[in-house]
């Protein structure tokens, strides 16, 4: 059997989440006439798109008992500036009047495509029977937006080496004795004090650290107990699940981070690779800095390269890998002090 180079690639479609909130005090004292409007301050998104809300008094016809009546209602629009290319906009809206939720559940998707300076999207059509924008001491409009131009960024992740000999061992599968007392000859004591039954030959085959414990005259070998008090019971079970079955059962982010730490400590390279790939797949603007710190702590080169590439392509500057890595790590150390 030979060693195989494995390379993965990533493609991300651009996306930005924004939350805008507009609070109007004493709106009942602003009696909008037909055609008049009231604008919110301008909200700027990170993508340099500018938005603002506009309440407009507009005449609307209402049929009642074969007669047509005309009422002035207040409609709510979202206006967009600086839109040159097509942008997809998902929105979710709610209105709170004097602490009471008067409107929620308005959501939808609109495609904004114009070369004009400004374009408006109707969010709420007013109701003459329930004029929520005419009364109240405090009216709050909350809007969540998700914006995307549909553009994509692709890059290759770093390659890592998989030993086919180790892969072959994993295929033997020891799931039939996973967490079983049957044939168990060692126990792992976790941080909470719980003990987990295990098997020396399985652990030693997967981990050089366990192999050293069990082939030398160490107390763990003599006492038939390995204390891993820096590893939680949940993480230890997940680590053993991988050792015995070759798969990871839980992909929760917090667990994956702790599992990465355990894989580094016990030199479980394949498990470490899987953890790095999982964490790389959920990189975002919010967690890129944290992931870079984690990669530095646990010598996770694959995760570090992925995080740096994410930042590098995000800021669109021709910086080198080392420059960006040092820049962000330096900032992270300052924040942690």
UniProtKB/TrEMBL annotation:
<dbReference type="InterPro" id="IPR000210">
    <property type="entry name" value="BTB/POZ_dom"/>
</dbReference>
<dbReference type="InterPro" id="IPR011333">
    <property type="entry name" value="SKP1/BTB/POZ_sf"/>
</dbReference>
<feature type="domain" description="BTB">
    <location>
        <begin position="184"/>
        <end position="252"/>
    </location>
</feature>
<protein>
    <recommendedName>
        <fullName>BTB domain-containing protein</fullName>
    </recommendedName>
</protein>
<dbReference type="Pfam" id="PF00651">
    <property type="entry name" value="BTB"/>
</dbReference>
């Amino acid at each position: 059997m030979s060693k195989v180079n494995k390379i993965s690639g990533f493609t991300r479609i651009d996306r930005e989440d924004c939350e805008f909130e507009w609070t109007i005090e004493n709106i009942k004292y602003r009696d909008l006439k037909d055609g008049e409007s009231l604008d919110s301050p301008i909200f700027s998104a990170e993508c340099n798109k500018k938005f603002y809300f506009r309440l407009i008094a507009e005449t609307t016809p209402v049929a009642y008992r074969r007669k047509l009546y005309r009422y002035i209602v207040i409609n709510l629009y979202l206006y967009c500036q600086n839109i040159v290319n097509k942008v997809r906009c998902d929105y979710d809206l709610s209105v709170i009047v004097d602490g009471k939720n008067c409107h929620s559940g308005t959501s939808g998707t609109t495609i904004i495509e114009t070369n004009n300076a400004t374009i408006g999207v109707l969010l709420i059509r007013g109701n003459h029977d329930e004029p929520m924008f005419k009364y109240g001491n405090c009216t709050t409009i909350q809007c969540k937006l998700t914006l995307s131009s549909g553009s994509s960024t692709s890059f290759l992740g770093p390659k890592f080496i998989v030993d086919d000999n180790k892969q072959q061992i994993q295929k033997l599968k020891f799931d039939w004795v996973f967490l079983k007392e049957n044939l168990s000859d060692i126990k792992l004591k976790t941080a909470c004090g719980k003990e987990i039954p295990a098997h020396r030959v399985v652990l030693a085959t997967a981990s050089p650290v366990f192999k050293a414990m069990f082939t030398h005259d160490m107390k763990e070998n003599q006492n038939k107990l390995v204390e891993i008090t820096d590893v939680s019971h949940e993480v230890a079970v997940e680590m053993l699940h991988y050792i015995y079955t070759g798969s990871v059962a839980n992909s929760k982010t917090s667990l994956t981070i702790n599992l990465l730490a355990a894989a580094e400590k016990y030199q479980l390279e394949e498990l470490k690779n899987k953890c790095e790939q999982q964490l790389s797949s959920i990189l975002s603007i919010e967690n890129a800095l944290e992931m870079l710190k984690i990669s530095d702590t646990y010598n996770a080169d694959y995760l570090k390269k992925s995080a740096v590439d994410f930042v590098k392509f995000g800021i669109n500057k021709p910086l080198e890998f080392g420059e960006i890595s040092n820049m962000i790590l330096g900032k992270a150390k300052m924040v942690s002090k």
